[in-house]
Design goal:
The chain has a 3-stranded mixed beta sheet with strand order 1-3-2. About 25% of the residues lie in helices and about 15% in strands. By secondary structure, the protein is of the alpha+beta class. It is extended. The protein has 2 domains: about 50 residues, no CATH class; about 35 residues, no CATH class.
Length: about 90
């Protein structure tokens, strides 16, 4: 059985057609691909990347290190929160 990302239930509630992608249940599309394309172009889109990797950092100066490494301000994150961000 394929694993489910934290957003799996939300994907299914939104009508996603789910497929096994390298051991993870991922959305293939949400109905009409043309309608989906226009929705993303006209408003916004989101891509679930939670299946890609989990990275845990530990240490007394971890916030300082991540603030140096990442473009987003990690001081605004709460415990167990996540945010996509480019590395600098």
């Amino acid at each position: 059985m394929a694993q489910q990302t934290p957003l799996y239930e939300q994907h299914t509630l939104c009508g996603a057609r789910m497929v096994d992608f390298h051991g993870w249940m991922m959305p293939l599309h949400y109905g009409s691909q043309i309608d989906e394309h226009h929705a993303v172009r006209g408003d916004a889109g989101m891509f679930d990347v939670s299946h890609m990797t989990i990275v845990d950092f530990h240490g007394s100066r971890i916030r300082e290190f991540l603030r140096y490494l990442l473009a987003n301000d990690v001081a605004k994150l709460t415990t167990r929160a996540k945010r996509s961000t480019p590395e600098c």
